[in-house]
Amino acid sequence: MPTRVIEEWLREDIPFGDLTTNALGIADKPSVAEVIVRESGIICGLEEASRMYGTLGASCELFVKDGDKVSPGALALKAKGPAKALHAAWRAAQVVIEYASGVATKTWRLVSKAKSVNPKVVIATTRKAPPGVRSLYFKAVLSGGGIIHRASLSETILIFHNHVSLIGGFEEALKKALEAKRRWPEKKLAFEVGSIEEALKAAETGIDEVQLDHIGVGELKRLVPKLRELNPQIIIAVAGGIDEHNIEEYASTGVDVIVTSAPYHAKPLNITTKIYAIT
Amino acid sequence: MPTRVIEEWLREDIPFGDLTTNALGIADKPSVAEVIVRESGIICGLEEASRMYGTLGASCELFVKDGDKVSPGALALKAKGPAKALHAAWRAAQVVIEYASGVATKTWRLVSKAKSVNPKVVIATTRKAPPGVRSLYFKAVLSGGGIIHRASLSETILIFHNHVSLIGGFEEALKKALEAKRRWPEKKLAFEVGSIEEALKAAETGIDEVQLDHIGVGELKRLVPKLRELNPQIIIAVAGGIDEHNIEEYASTGVDVIVTSAPYHAKPLNITTKIYAIT
Amino acid sequence: MPTRVIEEWLREDIPFGDLTTNALGIADKPSVAEVIVRESGIICGLEEASRMYGTLGASCELFVKDGDKVSPGALALKAKGPAKALHAAWRAAQVVIEYASGVATKTWRLVSKAKSVNPKVVIATTRKAPPGVRSLYFKAVLSGGGIIHRASLSETILIFHNHVSLIGGFEEALKKALEAKRRWPEKKLAFEVGSIEEALKAAETGIDEVQLDHIGVGELKRLVPKLRELNPQIIIAVAGGIDEHNIEEYASTGVDVIVTSAPYHAKPLNITTKIYAIT
Amino acid sequence: MPTRVIEEWLREDIPFGDLTTNALGIADKPSVAEVIVRESGIICGLEEASRMYGTLGASCELFVKDGDKVSPGALALKAKGPAKALHAAWRAAQVVIEYASGVATKTWRLVSKAKSVNPKVVIATTRKAPPGVRSLYFKAVLSGGGIIHRASLSETILIFHNHVSLIGGFEEALKKALEAKRRWPEKKLAFEVGSIEEALKAAETGIDEVQLDHIGVGELKRLVPKLRELNPQIIIAVAGGIDEHNIEEYASTGVDVIVTSAPYHAKPLNITTKIYAIT
Amino acid sequence: MPTRVIEEWLREDIPFGDLTTNALGIADKPSVAEVIVRESGIICGLEEASRMYGTLGASCELFVKDGDKVSPGALALKAKGPAKALHAAWRAAQVVIEYASGVATKTWRLVSKAKSVNPKVVIATTRKAPPGVRSLYFKAVLSGGGIIHRASLSETILIFHNHVSLIGGFEEALKKALEAKRRWPEKKLAFEVGSIEEALKAAETGIDEVQLDHIGVGELKRLVPKLRELNPQIIIAVAGGIDEHNIEEYASTGVDVIVTSAPYHAKPLNITTKIYAIT
Amino acid sequence: MPTRVIEEWLREDIPFGDLTTNALGIADKPSVAEVIVRESGIICGLEEASRMYGTLGASCELFVKDGDKVSPGALALKAKGPAKALHAAWRAAQVVIEYASGVATKTWRLVSKAKSVNPKVVIATTRKAPPGVRSLYFKAVLSGGGIIHRASLSETILIFHNHVSLIGGFEEALKKALEAKRRWPEKKLAFEVGSIEEALKAAETGIDEVQLDHIGVGELKRLVPKLRELNPQIIIAVAGGIDEHNIEEYASTGVDVIVTSAPYHAKPLNITTKIYAIT
Question: How far apart are CA A53 and CA A55, in angstroms?
Fold first, then answer.
């Protein structure tokens, strides 16, 4: 995370100094801040939170590390410094841990459920993180045992319906996609299909991955073996409305990859910060 | 929103160009992108989304404006330009609208519920938006009819338990808070209390606002009239675990302000974008 | 102060290296820089100056701290490092201290004068600092014993004539202001009035603060008790052309707050820097 | 001025929206803002102010241009747009004009006084502008008829006492300076001298410019002809405590360049902004 | 290219205004700048150059577009505006075009040579562009008919010797690589091998691409068919010292991808800019 | 180099984490990275490379310093830290060293050749570095023994044909240039001439430097003594197509300054990085 971002996260919360701590006359009091977990989950964002405290001149000690499983009452981070530094960082740093841990924990729950049914399936999250926090949320997904479906538009060739509509039809788009792959042989070529027919046609060609959108579990179960038969190498991904209530069903269909944005809207993990004076 | 932020939101999604659109050879095709709502709610983020398209050279037309109530099927934004501009902006712009509208819609639901019971109560959101999007999410809260409890640490004097612990006790902290107010007479002085006793003691003094944290509805109902009696001018705020399931109860207690972070973790509003060629 | 700003202040003065120190061949000579005060006042900006030296690889020791009263000859800061680091930082760092200390010293003189007449009055500075240095100058005002009237447009509801003109008259504006306060009960509501009549009318309502602009001392003396009688809670602020020559008179009127921009155009405090070789 | 700076100047004043204009419900009212001069002087900063209004979506018309002489009552700039844009830009834009015009006007007064005595003398300002506004203040100096002594450390070879002390004596420093000039023949070589003797010695060598610091007018009058005799090409600059009260005397000594920081602490020019509704 | 970058490219060349144009008194003269090609090649960077002129208030017309083949004498861009805008942008804009076109032209020559021998081979450039211009140079490579081997470390799994050394041997690294691929099925897995033996072993497994470093043409010719036999799907890339003098030989070996950094150090294309007054 | 730039150079190469090192499960392995020279030359960029490693949490030791002459096999830098830090910095840091050292080495070769013929001549590079790396490349030029002709447009008065064309002729431009010098006596005045006649006319006036563009060696040899005769103080610079093959000839003409962009397109110096585990 660039210094610029770390400092911007602080500046959001403290554009012109911490009025309360100043006005109470306690700014220079030597103090400790303890970040304490109040809910089970996967912790994440500690590295960034430490840098936030550090930027303001506090020293930090970590008691767990990003990606660790934590239980209520666990002490995660301890910062020491003048009260003004701790009060300036406290809430903004805690928010980073809460959101990152929320994403990590949700990912981990989805991964656990899916793997319990199909140990080979992987859970991949989308490009749909809130604006500006993609980098933090991707890290949280990895901490929770997930992977990233596609980090950006610069990474792979992935044909959406919005490309097909500009080319003028599925067959033509498939043809163009295969040409594109010849020009960019090192990039994965994936195709998001809108129907069973398209899925089967795409699988017959040299595409690397077929992405199925909003398809029912029953249909998917019938489709997967057919796709594998047509193209044993093909990677089969499914997306669309998949969350904790139905991920086991989707995992059971035998797909390779389940694509979801659900972790990005997870509730932040419940964290608290206690500040007290060094006596 | 500074240009720097608008462009950073795009760059996250497209660090080195849009591989797919380039590789398919459709980059210069004159095209249209339509942003269409698929779920009822309050729309927000259109202004920012337009600037994202505009930055890439597409021209935009808005059919609704930020804060409008929208229904499924509504066309919100239409952008025109070469396919490369539309494909580069599409998903990143849609994500901004989805999250901002999710926040606005959730706020609006909370406000509606609370006001149905107590028309004078206001719903104020906290400083706990995800890091980096505070400005966007604050705007969305306003679009949904809420207000901002406290935009930053620089704004008001608000004594938390983490201040009290550094001062050495509630009585002493209250004394220091009132001194602080004498030095900063133009700033609001608020006090977050941990018990009924503290609430009553604080109300007797010249503080402007008492903030009650994690207090039950029953207790709150008994406390509010006592506080008003002790100090008719006092503003009474309550926070802690308030969401759609209990906001009506809290509103019915007669408090002035309900403080919540719930809108910040709302599900994004369901939006889609259709791109097609100009023929 | 974000790292970005600290580094930009240096870059302004040294876009492509320090030609002189390089060309003289003394760049790597181990050296000391001493920042010495040449005029009595309140020192400020040392924290920022230290970071400027530190960024370039010099180590810093402070002998006084921001907000201290200093006399001619006082050693404020000592930096050690290669000549190239000290020569690159010297002037730019000194300028930061000179301006910040000038602002702090002027504030302190205004505060001293005002308090000598009316110990309860506070001196608040405006939003009119030079562009880009608001954060530094606000800190300097606090160092000199002043407060900030209003840090930004996002902080309080403050009705100016430029709002009244859009609403269509004082009465209507007052009405709208009170409605605004009902929607934003936690924010202070202040009103800048243009006449005695407006002041009296505003005081009768529930506004928190009345701000009097360019009003004579005699008139003000008569007005203050009337306002207090109408509304004992009201905060009375006065602004407009108040500086060292007349602040005692204004303080003597019994207002609560004197608002001024004068510290922002104070002469920089006279500071010098001596660089010598470590032998 | 980079967009980043223009937007940062706005953001300082409006980190989270304009609370007042929003809360009053007048944000979308079509309005006009007029920037009006209230004091004679040289106007500057209009270009930057226009960009600030423009960034927020208002259209601007200028009635004078940067560097023009203006009189009280002159309309300088007219902006049209929704009230939210005008109220967001108004004060921050006005502050830019006030400070830049203050610098320009002060420069112009210094130049006028100096030229009235010695039409060939030039007034050059130092590197000591407030941190972060060097670029704006340099432009203002040019608008007022001054020049820039030395824009940054990267520009010329200028030996200060702080270099001499590292080299170990004036003679040795002069020798090293002349060597430096042989390596960098295209750069001006200037030397700040501490005494008459040093001035005369320096003039005898091939340096381009001698800079005299804190030297009295009488002494200077005797020194200038001697320096010219020793080196007819040499540029003679004088600095140190020169302001309106003594610039004529210094100009009369026949020096080529008078170096001063005085314009940087000039009082801002008195400007006002009137906002009204388009009817 | 973000606005921030466009403006930084200008600011490098003009930190404090254009001294010459100002000092000559021609700043406001209405003028034209013509960017003219003096050497055959592929033009690139015009889009960025236009934005540089536009940022300063000049209007631009393009006569060719990025990726076009150009001949000596061709007019590429015409800008109109005051002399100060044209003189401020001229050289910095021309430099962008020169370097980008140099990269595009060199790529195109490499592609032409390679395809003349083996029409199916593709030319991919590395991550080794000069720091900070990766995005511009990647675009130039595409303009010249090349592709990007791997835009960043976030894109694919590519095992270098520096990974193998941390894992403890080739066999173990290959095993770990295949495990990595099972966890990240959607990412390409490439392996840079150090010998023929490693190449053959790697090809037998499920890796997607084998990358051969600094291998002779003769050896490569013998190796390619063996690799294809072992794994018909495998992509074969070769890198290491490949430039115009030997690319045909390497192309003739039947590899799929030739990886090179050569375009990044190409000589800039010879371009000139003529500025004249509008009469 | 600002932190922002150091971090941007890293971010270019690692927008969303290092996929390979993560996926292989070796991210936390304690490791060493050694940067080793493979080609003789002048090393540069080590300071920046160290900061890149340091930013990611690795500790660095340097074995040579910027500007040192290095031979194949030399160990330049050793970094220690977890594999994720070393792998994230490695390539991006190496590229900085390679390019900066390439520029330094080429400069040094040009300087050596020129000085072997004419020890007094200096080699100055132009403003034509690739966009965004001017500061790094200038430093590399100094490391190689060159100087900078003119760092930016803000530095000196240098009249190009593109100024002459706006003024309306050489004689008139020369007159205006001399007037400009009277207004800016501290700035160097240089004139780029297009013919022998112009060179001679310019030399007769008070200009400081005449710059000859694309003039043959024979003609130059005849011209130099004439110019010196007309104006013994004048600095004579020559530019246009000067590189290693002809720099000795140009040096032999007796000019003061040879201006060239050749170092900016030098081949990067051959450097490698070896990463291994700490055992």
Answer: 6
Local structure of E250: helix, strand or coil? helix
**Element (H or E) spanning A144, and its range?**
none
Q: How far apart are CA E80 and CA E57, in angstroms?
A: 9
Say what the pLDDT of residue E144 is: 98
Tokens of F71: 């031979």
- C176: contact with D, CB 8 A cutoff: yes
Compute the Cα dihedral for A72, A76, A80, A86 and give only its sign: negative
What backbone torsions phi and psi does residue F156 show, to the nearest 5 degrees? Answer: -135, 170
3-state DSSP assignment of residue C74: coil
Residues counted in chain E = 279
Q: Is E156 on the interface with B (CB under 8 A)?
A: no
State the Cα–Cα distance between residues D25 and D121, nearest whole angstrom. Answer: 57
Q: Is the dihedral of CA F73, F78, F82, F88 positive or negative?
A: negative
Phi, psi angles (nearest 5°) of residue D150: -170, 110
F259 Cβ under 8 Å from any chain D Cβ: no
* Tokens, residue D68: 């023009």
User: Which residue, among E268, E215, E261, has the nearest Cα to F270 in the 3D structure?
Assistant: E261
Interface of C with D in 78-117 (CB under 8 A): 83, 87-88, 90-92, 95-96, 98-99, 102
- Please name the residue that has the structure tokens 């080429």: F106
DSSP state of F158: E
Q: Does residue D135 belong to the interface with chain E, where contact is any CB pair within 8 Å?
A: yes
Residues D17-55: tens digit of each pLDDT: 999 999 999 999 999 999 999 999 999 999 999 999 999
pLDDT beyond 90 at D16: yes
Residue E180's CB: how many other CB atoms inside 10 A?
Answer: 20
Distances (CA, A) of F65 to C65, E186, F16: 37, 44, 32
Evaluate whether C259 touches C235 at the Cβ level (below 8 Å).
no
Mean pLDDT of chain C: 97
Place of tokens 């912790």: A43
Neighbouring residues of B99: CB distance < 8 A, sequence distance ≥ 6 = A130, A131, B45, B133, B136, B137, B140, B268
Report whether pLDDT(C194) > 90: no
Judging contacts by C-beta atoms under 8 Å, the chain A residues touching residue C152 are 15-16
CA angle (F153 as vertex; F148, F156 as ends), nearest 5? 70
Residues 6 or more apart in contact with residue B169 via CB below 8 angstroms: none
Residues of D in contact with F190 (CB under 8 A): 186
Neighbours of chain D (3+ CB pairs under 8 A): B, C, E, F
Residue-wise pLDDT tens digits, B219-243: 999 999 999 999 999 999 999 999 9
Compute the distance between CA of residue E92 and CA of residue E8 in angstroms, rounded to an integer.
10
Predicted local distance difference test score (pLDDT) of residue C167: 96
Compute the Cα dihedral for A240, A244, A249, A250 and give only its sign. Answer: positive
Q: What is the pLDDT of residues F196-249, one digit of tens each?
A: 999 999 999 989 999 999 999 999 999 999 999 999 999 999 999 999 999 999
3-class DSSP state for residue F213?
strand
E168: left (phi over 0), alpha (psi -120 to 50) or beta: left
Count of pairs with CB atoms under 8 A, one residue in C, one in D: 207
Taking the CA of residue F25 as centre, how many other CA atoms within 13 Å lie in the half-sphere pointing to its CB? 13
Beta strand E257-260 with E235-239 is: parallel
Q: What is the pLDDT of residues F158-182, one digit of tens each?
A: 999 999 999 989 999 999 999 999 9
Tell me, yes or no, if B57 comes closer than 8 A to chain E by beta carbon.
no
Looking only at the bridges linking them, the beta strands covering D75-82 and D235-239 are unpaired
